[in-house]
């Protein structure tokens, strides 16, 4: 089976923001975990794993009875990605490559155990798999990669996944975890997990740069701002839950992000909202006015797809100090004039109360990225209404 990139149709509808008035009682597909392909990991063609198996670990943020997985070969324009076999299982004693023995299930693509993604394929969904999952459960999706030279296809994640040594062959049905001796903080080729269930009314996508990806976070800590928000969204009553997943890529800009928003947000399953924190543009020489225009484009396109957009001010050290005038102007616009459906003032949360235009040292691990306390402060500042509002 050979698959190329596919276009995804969307329904266009614009309306005003309204509160959720009724719980969803029918089963629906929602993206329960995401990690977009990351160009930082792009390397020479055919430089990926060879003749071995990768075990991708993902924490799903909503419960359901079936799953399907999303794979990509977007980073390589010359080398096909061959998946010789695929399985899914429940992780035992995470973080670990070991699986609960009775949980293992085969994954197919178009009814076939193997699939070849042509070079440049943006996204491909597997067939649905009967595989009950609970919210905040770690699952492992294993791919056998039989080709001598597979493409580089790493994604932006911050939890440990695993790989067997080159030449280890098909280990997709192993449950002991013993062959998987190589750890990685990025998954390979796996970019999403959808869950079919009745618990969630939709999903909120965190669209941003390194903070949303999790730079300098503790791997497997599950205490990034989006994961803390995800826990809140998943704790709402059944039928009205709003899990949160990450589409963050380190080094991304809002302007560049517009070129991937169709794949990483609009084409995801059950999207009802997005949170935007893509904050590198000013450091790349763009002006506040140019960034404002990009926000306007993003919000317009999201509203056309019935997706509500929440934004935030840009915190200190999100640019170098030569762009502070532009940052202040942009933040004032976000708070008073932007088309966003809600704005949280993360600048006031994270900045120092003593020294203007500097970060609070209690909240940062370096000059740019928040530490665990910073992530917690950001999440706590998000209003509850973000998890209950929607565009009808």
Please supply descriptive tags for the structure shown above:
alpha+beta; six-stranded antiparallel beta sheet; five-stranded antiparallel beta sheet; Rossmann fold; 392 residues; 2 domains; single chain; 8 helices
Care to describe what's here?
With 392 residues, the protein is α+β, with helices and mostly antiparallel strands. Strands 8-7-12-4-13-14 form a six-stranded antiparallel beta sheet, with no helix packed on it. Helix 5 runs parallel beside helix 6.
- Which residue ranges are poorly predicted, with pLDDT under 50 across at least 5 consecutive positions? 5-24
Order of helical and strand elements: EEEEEEEEEEEEEEEEHHEHHEHEHEHHE
- The domain count comes to 2
- Count helical runs: 8
Find the CATH superfamily of the largest domain.
SGNH hydrolase
Q: What kind of sheet is the major sheet?
A: 6 strands, antiparallel
- Summed over residues and divided by their number, the pLDDT gives a mean of 89
At CATH level 2, the architecture of the largest domain is: 3-Layer(aba) Sandwich
CATH-defined fold name of the largest domain: Rossmann fold
- Please bin the fraction of helical residues: 10-25%
